[in-house]
Amino acid sequence: xxxxxxxxxxxxxxxxxxxxxxxxxxxxxxxxLDFESLEQVLRAVQCTVVSAVGNHYFDAYxxxx
Amino acid sequence: xxxxVYPTKIIIKTxxxxxxxxxxxxxxxxxxHLGLTLxxxxxxxxxxxxxxxxxxxxxxxxxxxxxxxxxxxSNLCYRKASVMPCKIPSHSWHVFTASDEAHLVITPHAxxxxxxxxxxxxxxxxxLARKFFKRPGDEKTGDTAGKEMTELTGIGHINPGSLICDFxxxxxxxxxxxxxxxxxxxxxxxxxxxxxxYASFEFVGSIYDDLDDVAQVLKKVVQVFxxxxxxxxxxxxxxxxxxRVGGALEPxxxxxxxxxxxxxxAAGNVVFQTFTTRRK
Lengths: 65, 280
Fold this sequence. Notes:
- The structure holds two protein chains of two kinds.
- Chain A is α+β, with helices and mostly antiparallel strands.
- Chain A has one helix spanning 35-44; strands spanning 11-19, 48-54, 59-64.
- Helix content of chain A is 15%, strand content 34%.
- In chain A, a hairpin with a 4-residue loop joins strand 2 (48-54) and strand 3 (59-64).
- The model of chain A has no long low-confidence stretch (mean pLDDT 89).
- Chain B has helices spanning 24-33, 61-71, 126-129, 142-153, 211-225, 240-249, and strands at residues 2-5, 9-14, 36-45, 78-84, 93-99, 114-122, 163-168, 174-181, 184-191, 198-206, 229-236, 254-264, 268-277.
- In chain B, the strands form three sheets. An eight-stranded antiparallel sheet of chain B has the order 7-8-9-10-6-11-13-12. A three-stranded antiparallel sheet of chain B has the order 3-5-4.
- The mean pLDDT of chain B is 91.
- Chain B is 22% helix and 37% strand.
- Classes of the chains: A alpha+beta, B alpha+beta.
- Chains A and B meet through strand 1, helix 1, strand 2 and strand 3 of A and strand 1, strand 2, helix 1, strand 3 and strand 6 of B.
């Protein structure tokens, strides 16, 4: 095996949800997840947040493995 | 690596040897507490440079598909897994999608019909790749060094006006997320080490955009990295977008070596194209 360097090719997962109660659609939905819960999910993926930005529509996080 | 959180959509994109698919179960758990039910899933990746270094459940695409099948709820009953072939054996494209009945097809009338371009570039130009190394002894933080790289490499000009958050890693490597406008983003990840240099560019656009803009963005991306090999996966319901890719790259000396199309539940069409510089 080649001397293993850092694997560049990414894995990409996209999940779409729908609200059990349509009234929720106007809300923040997944954006209500608190940072502790997000960190729980990222811990399962061996990642941590190093930078973040957001606007009216979504939040974007840069992660480090 | 990057994470994007919308009210009813979440996208996680990770490099290295992360166990990305292990995020599904905790995400379903938290979403359920928010009154949200999963309705569709899409998993994509290129071909690993170091496949033997990948941990469970990513040691093979077969293992990934089994893990996805076991992790997804039964209401996502429309499922498809495919390895889209390519003449360059090390550059196949792996796609798995799953959907429930209601979200099986994205109709062109859907107000938010976005398309996604996932670009993977290898054998970067060495001089350009060196710009993604931190200088020895450089005490700058990842944020500050990241901003410097964004400017130095011209990445800041790919989608002018986007809100960028960027980060430079020690001793090399770079990641950025750009909020373009509204609910669209671009994201770039670079591992510049010689011998296995790699960069990715992902761009979410709307089929109502001026498609010349797509060509402009692609040209700038090639100018930043000058890769010898480039693959482009276009996921969309309309057909025009992917046709613009070749038109943008060929004048830059990138020759199209393969083009495959496939249709997937909840994702519409995936068009996978690979390009190499003529010198190859």
